[in-house]
């Protein structure tokens, strides 16, 4: 009965095994922002990453205020990580279309420029679903590797290079927008070499800045025929809890749980996303 | 480069370590049904369970037709499991309010009666989020253990026993309905003894049939002050893919991916849920 979490769960073993120094490190950059779903979604992603060796996780949070619950949770996971506060610049606060996740991703890349010269970069949003085999697929990327992304919220419901007999045939993507690389943020990885990328660009700009062409793509996931990542979207929690504030719950566990559910989150004044 | 998934990923190690024969087994019963989100959601849950020792997973699928992709995936995970086809009885097909997951859970319990006499039972839907510490909390349940469930879609946004100074004070739950146990399906575990439960009952009926009272509850998760499980709901995929059927994609990877995304799933004729 006196067993501790550490004794029974596999975390400590994972951390030990995570140190496969012969494997290239995968730097996973996860933009996130405060909301009631934040901790559950990052919990799911963390428990995915716990099954993958040699991961370094950059969690970049769109807030000025460090989220202590999240910081404590990241420490608990045992996954090598850095937590960064990366608020969206105030100049966008009046914009109708806001650059979601851009400040977060740029901050992650800036950190990488300063702290790492090898390995692979992957942008992993917190609400997607990742099969652990995806990380195996991307680990030895030389220029750019790509694979299909399922359940994308465009009309195709799928984003992937079209491949026939091992050759690039074009893109399967709902929206063109004059882009060279019609690829979803979850659909590629690149090596973390020193590279002339332009911060602030999205998928296409980022990949173009690497001076690669679609013919340089390394098709992963069995020539883009396997699905190892999906845009699963989580419904926003729409409840308007009132009873939780009632005085009769003073001196009960409800007071503590309220903080866990709604820490720093004011639905009337959501963060810059 | 020739490394296999098995060599690099932690799965084989997990399976080995999963055999902690001194620990009580946790039987996780997961009702599920065919839809585009089925494989991603079960992938996330599987990767959670891979971090927990001595789990036995009963995946009970509301369909007549075995889902071979799912069966193959379950084998890949290395988690000890049984896959059951448990379609909703046809008599409910005309009902407006259908008994969601009831046939699945009963089939899981029937399997347990036949194959196991010890351990703990937990009902884990495929779209919830589980912190691995939850399984540690429930493993030594003697009569019934309970903990808070967050993001529940009732107006409280939370479901938990109210606890003060270690004592049961009542329930925090949006709906009463004359129940003795106002508890969410994800909020309790019971031992798998031979017990006089009535199949077909939901949470309250099930717990009442165990002849326990609220005062028998073992409060877990630090006296119900920690949140280790959330009702995260996944948005239904609303895309209406048409381009994916175009003839120009014959002999490309798009044909293969179509099957992965829409296997046996006809949005015009969804299954009985």
Outline the structure in words.
- The structure is a homodimer of 273-residue chains.
- Residues 1-16 and 263-273 of chain A have low confidence and may be disordered.
- Chain A has one domain: Spore Coat Polysaccharide Biosynthesis Protein SpsA, Chain A (Alpha-Beta Complex), CATH 3.90.550.
- Chain A is of the alpha/beta class.
- In chain A, the strands form 3 sheets. In chain A, strands 3-2-1-4-10-6-11 form a 7-stranded mixed β-sheet, with helices on both faces.
- Chain A has helices spanning 5-8, 11-17, 38-49, 68-77, 102-115, 133-138, 203-208, 220-224, 253-262; strands at 26-32, 55-61, 81-85, 120-123, 129-130, 144-146, 149-150, 158-164, 167-172, 188-191, 217-219, 229-230.
- Chains A and B meet through helix 2, helix 3, helix 6, strand 8 and helix 9 of A and helix 2, helix 3, helix 6, strand 8 and helix 9 of B.
């Amino acid at each position: 009965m006196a067993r501790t979490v550490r004794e029974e769960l596999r975390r400590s073993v994972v951390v030990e095994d995570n140190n496969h120094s012969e494997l290239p490190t995968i730097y996973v950059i996860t933009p996130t922002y405060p909301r009631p779903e934040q901790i559950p979604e990052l919990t799911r992603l963390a428990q995915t990453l716990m099954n993958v060796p040699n991961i370094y996780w950059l969690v970049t949070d769109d807030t000025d205020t460090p989220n202590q619950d999240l910081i404590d949770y990241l420490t608990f996971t045992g996954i090598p990580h850095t937590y960064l506060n990366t608020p969206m610049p105030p100049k966008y606060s009046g914009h109708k279309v806001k650059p979601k996740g851009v400040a977060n991703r740029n901050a992650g890349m800036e950190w990488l420029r300063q702290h790492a010269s090898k390995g692979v970069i992957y942008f992993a949003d917190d609400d997607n679903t990742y099969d652990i085999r995806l990380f195996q697929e991307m680990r030895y990327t030389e220029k750019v590797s790509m694979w299909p992304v399922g359940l994308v919220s465009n009309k195709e419901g799928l984003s992937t290079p079209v491949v026939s007999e091992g050759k690039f045939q074009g893109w399967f993507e709902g929206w063109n927008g004059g882009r060279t690389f019609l690829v979803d943020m979850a659909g590629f990885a690149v090596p973390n070499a020193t590279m002339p990328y332009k911060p602030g660009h999205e998928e296409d700009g980022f990949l173009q800045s690497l001076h690669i062409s679609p013919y340089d793509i390394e098709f992963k996931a069995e020539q883009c025929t396997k699905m190892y990542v999906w845009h699963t979207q989580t419904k926003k929690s729409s409840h308007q809890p009132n009873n939780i504030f009632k005085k009769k719950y003073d001196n009960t566990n409800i007071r503590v749980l309220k903080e866990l559910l709604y820490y720093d989150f004011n639905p009337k004044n959501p963060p810059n996303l």
